[in-house]
Amino acid sequence: MSYSSSFIPFVDFQLQPSLQQELEQAIRSVIEQGDYVLGRAVSEFESLFAQVCETRFGVGVACGTDAVALGLQACGIGPGDEVLLPANTFVATLIGVLRTGATPILVDCDPQTALIDLLAAEKAITSRTRAIVPVHLYGQMVSPTALLNLASAYDLLILEDAAQAHLAEREGYRAGSVGSAAAFSFYPSKNLGAMGDGGMVLTSEEIVAQTVRSLRNYGALRKYFHTDLGTNSRLDSIQAAVLQVKLAHLPAWNADRYRIAQQYDALLLPLAQYGIVPIDNQSGQGHVYHLYVIRVTDYCPIDRTALQTGLTELGIQTGIHYPIPCHLQPAYQHLGYRAGDFPVAERLSQEILSLPLYPGMVEAQVQQVVEAITALVNRSLEQPPYSLMEIQPDRSLLAG
Ligand SMILES: *Cc1c(COP(=O)(O)O)cnc(C)c1O
């Protein structure tokens, strides 16, 4: 974790020696216990995670995709139901909805926050719409009050996709505590990551928790008595033990992510005049910055691809989350959407760039990233056909 070379990875999974020791101890105790599936470590972590997320029940599952699917299924969503979700999410959200047999209805997003546009969602509601799956994208929650208003006006059920938002907060709500249920992922690169796959459904409704417990375990609450058409999707005891150790560190890690994001915000400010603008944080300190994403807009003298390539050459790894919106993915052409259906999501997919961010990243590294971006922008400014005179930033893009 020491800052010795100029190479800056996108994320850094290196463990501090003290944490590694804690993890080895936790894994060893599961080995001694021998309860690898649905063991003590799982039920302990389930209660703990539900508690810190201010919900009543946690049910560990195999991954975040299953958490979306089983959470919706447990809420009674299935064939014939329409489910609203953003077009600009990781494809797993869509897969989760499709797995229930329901019809996904994609919705465009807000250009400033990249979160689902709730006015567009409202317009997409029909008599068959039963649920909405807001995605707390990049670590920022979709406004809980706006969501709850929409849900109560149209009698919709909310399942939060909180896979990128462990412990995020907004308007006094914790991610995972807003809807009937919520889906979390513990994929290694998430804010709370296992040493493999893992996921959880959170809910405050006992019947939903009970149904997910059955669904994840072959549709049986009692051994060999199958009441639901279930599956096998469980969180491993070893992963639960790892997650319990890491959960204790999560508030500090999230605070570190927030500190790094603040540093990026401040250092990137001078680049706004050249059309480089961060995705907007409208939730203050409740944003947990799973990703720090900038937009390389049309007003920037360098295009996104050239900027990314230039950064790679300078030893700085970046990512794009996500380069192709769900409705343009080859696998989902049968849903009947076309290019142009979600203009904001489509434009953002061309503009966004995720910068390196991980707990332990030091300010000098943040500076190095911003200096590299600045140098690449300046180099492009000096090259025809661009000149300073030609650049007319669109103020509306930079506002708020
Ligand atoms: C990671 C992620 C998922 C899927 O989680 P897995 O554990 O990889 O199945 C779902 N939705 C979003 C928004 C994610 O980022």
Structure in a nutshell:
With 400 residues, the chain is of the alpha/beta class.
Question: What would your notes on this structure say?
Answer:
The structure is a single chain. The chain has 2 domains: 17-247, 3-Layer(aba) Sandwich (Aspartate Aminotransferase, domain 2); 250-398, Aspartate Aminotransferase, domain 1, CATH 3.90.1150.10. 38% of the residues lie in helices and 14% in strands. The protein is α/β, with parallel strands linked by helices and 400 residues long. Helix 3 crosses helix 7 (206-215). The chain is built from 13 helices and 14 strands. The strands form 4 sheets. The protein has a 7-stranded mixed sheet with strand order 1-9-8-5-4-2-3, with helices on both faces. Strands 12-13-14 form a 3-stranded antiparallel sheet.
Q: Sum up the overall morphology in one term.
A: globular
In percent, how helical is the residue content? 25-40%
How many angstroms separate the termini?
A: 35 Å
Task: Quickly give the CATH architecture of the largest domain.
Answer: 3-Layer(aba) Sandwich
Number of helices: 13
**Overall mean pLDDT score?**
95
Whole-number tally of structural domains: 2
Which structural category fits the helices and strands? alpha/beta
Number of strands: 14
Bound molecule kinds, no repeats: pyridoxal-5'-phosphate
Level-1 CATH class name of the largest domain: Alpha Beta
CATH homology-level superfamily of the largest domain? Type I PLP-dependent aspartate aminotransferase-like (Major domain)
Regions with pLDDT < 50 over 5+ consecutive residues?
none
For the report, how would you describe the main beta sheet? 7 strands, mixed
CATH topology of the largest domain: Aspartate Aminotransferase, domain 2
In spatial order, strands of the major sheet run 1-9-8-5-4-2-3
The string of secondary-structure elements, in order, is HHEHEHEHEHEEEEEHEEHHEEHHEHH
Q: What is the percentage of strand-forming residues? A: 5-15%
